[in-house]
């Protein structure tokens, strides 16, 4: 009873201080709310969301036990061990959230606000669109990552460095079946093929339908960790997809892909020819809920 009374008195004191300086309180609450919102948004849709709920439940339960039980029955040992218990929860949370924390720190350092001043030239977009269109028609798998703000140096180290001028012919040659580099990814930056045969981080199990192959998982995994824009051509169906921010968008045609890349990479929309800029790219499609469509042979494939 004494513990409950002390808790109520502390709450009354807190509310009194809030009404004494309402503007300061509003600013403090806005800052706290902003931080909480940013954290929850960063883990939304990932396994980290479940971990957040678990940590909050453990913290609330332990707080209730200490304040309403331990204090009431004078359980001194629990009161002494409580701070160490919370420290252990904090350390375990750091280990459990290491992937989410890494992504959060990377995104903070990306400087997305700089992208409005950094534009990708048309001679970067057009060769990619031309190569992807031809590869898709022939159902040749491809995986192309376009570097944006965050450097992909560590990814390039896993492959073969080329530093070659970007062209549709070179991209088609790299991904042609039987060549040494066709199975893995290519990194493109500012009109040059930086590296080929690069291993991209795969998306976690559960982030993508099982029907998707390793190329789609690699595209989603890389775009989830870094701000790269990753283009995928399915080897089975020839479907063109784009992964950005951990979300897979599909299917694209050559025109909608050109319009999408122009919008996201900042190229100049062509004024002649087909009005590709007016074509709306596919809507955002959550990678965890991609629908499946039956095929002619009774099996299922990604739509």
Descriptive key words:
single chain, 2 domains, 10 helices, 50% helix, alpha+beta, two-stranded antiparallel ribbon, elongated
Report on this structure.
There is one protein chain. This protein has ten helices and nine strands. The chain has helices at 2-20, 22-43, 47-70, 76-96, 98-110, 122-137, 153-156, 168-175, 214-225, 254-265, and strands spanning 142-146, 160-165, 185-189, 192-198, 229-233, 240-244, 247-252, 292-294, 300-302. It is α+β, with helices and mostly antiparallel strands and 303 residues long. It folds into two domains: 2-110, no CATH class; 115-302, DNA integrity scanning protein, DisA, N-terminal domain (YojJ-like (1), CATH 3.40.1700. Helix content is 50%, strand content 15%. The chain is elongated and about 75 Å long. Helix 3 runs antiparallel to helix 4 (76-96), helix 6 (122-137) packs across helix 8 (168-175) and helix 6 packs antiparallel against helix 10 (254-265). Residues 113-118, 268-281 and 283-303 have low confidence and may be disordered. The strands form two sheets. It has a seven-stranded mixed sheet with strand order 2-4-3-1-5-6-7, sandwiched between helices. A two-stranded antiparallel sheet has the order 8-9.
